[in-house]
Amino acid sequence: EEFLVEISGTTVTITCPVTDGSIVWQPAVIKPSDNEGKYIIEDYDSSPRNLTCSSGDKKYSMYLNARVCTNCQELDALAVSGIVIADLLITLGVLILVYYFSKDRKGKTSTGAGGRPRGQKMQRPPPVPNPDYEPIRKGQREVYAGLEPRGF
């Protein structure tokens, strides 16, 4: 059988697995509760403790090492799922906006410093032939036929 440990803020409530008879806690309960099967620690300082509850010949021990905080907020599953869904919807909305505004700009270029006005196409100069190479024309393959591979 297991202890039931509930943590809320800095209050830790431990329920003993023993259900019958008078329950004795070691160390003794500082503030006795209405239900003697519960051990309540208020303003718990996160220090480890050994606790024992017994009733008659049944004795249960546990080592309590829980972390608590004073400014924590408890969230239920509905609140967490709402936060996650809202985050996904906002992210999806941003993606749609980015797609919508970027699809109109496809193919358009922005002007930089010293750029040309919009709407004018830039004329590219024809490529300058390299004087080291002569283009191969039909019927002139014999110019290159005599070249043999050189060993390096």
TrEMBL record:
<dbReference type="GO" id="GO:0007166">
    <property type="term" value="P:cell surface receptor signaling pathway"/>
</dbReference>
<keyword id="KW-0391">Immunity</keyword>
<keyword id="KW-0732">Signal</keyword>
<keyword id="KW-0393">Immunoglobulin domain</keyword>
<feature type="transmembrane region" description="Helical">
    <location>
        <begin position="77"/>
        <end position="101"/>
    </location>
</feature>
<keyword id="KW-0675">Receptor</keyword>
<dbReference type="GO" id="GO:0009897">
    <property type="term" value="C:external side of plasma membrane"/>
</dbReference>
<keyword id="KW-1133">Transmembrane helix</keyword>
<dbReference type="InterPro" id="IPR013783">
    <property type="entry name" value="Ig-like_fold"/>
</dbReference>
<dbReference type="GO" id="GO:0004888">
    <property type="term" value="F:transmembrane signaling receptor activity"/>
</dbReference>
<dbReference type="InterPro" id="IPR003110">
    <property type="entry name" value="Phos_immunorcpt_sig_ITAM"/>
</dbReference>
<feature type="region of interest" description="Disordered">
    <location>
        <begin position="106"/>
        <end position="140"/>
    </location>
</feature>
<dbReference type="InterPro" id="IPR015484">
    <property type="entry name" value="CD3_esu/gsu/dsu"/>
</dbReference>
<dbReference type="GO" id="GO:0042105">
    <property type="term" value="C:alpha-beta T cell receptor complex"/>
</dbReference>
<protein>
    <recommendedName>
        <fullName>T-cell surface glycoprotein CD3 epsilon chain</fullName>
    </recommendedName>
</protein>
<keyword id="KW-1003">Cell membrane</keyword>
<dbReference type="Pfam" id="PF16681">
    <property type="entry name" value="Ig_5"/>
</dbReference>
<keyword id="KW-0472">Membrane</keyword>
<dbReference type="GO" id="GO:0045059">
    <property type="term" value="P:positive thymic T cell selection"/>
</dbReference>
<keyword id="KW-0812">Transmembrane</keyword>
